[in-house]
Design a protein that fits this description.
alpha/beta; Rossmann fold; globular
Length: 126
Amino acid sequence: MRATKLRILVVDDEPLVANSLVDILNLSGFEASSLYSGSQAIDRANIAAFDVLITEVVMPEMTGIDAAIEIQKVLPNCKVLLVSGNTRTDDLLRDAQERGSYFDILAKPVHPSVIIDRLKALSVLN
């Protein structure tokens, strides 16, 4: 059994969405924090490790997929869970797969219990 809490970074360009999920995750026994852009997430990865990245796919400036690819260069063991309600996501995922990156994705709206179940499964695997 893992002695430390799973450290999670939630990234969404809508702060209310990111912060609400962080509150739910922290109440569920995880150690979660939020940021609001892919570049902020990459900066965080360079100074503080986390176990799981949960990110919106379509955001201004940089997609969550591009951020995830860069973060996994710095934190190769970081698991990635993508969430999206955007129709562009399929094309972005195909592009990532062509670049050798494969990610799990959940379609919005997604109930927090679904995310928590995925995270608990990851905790068992670690």
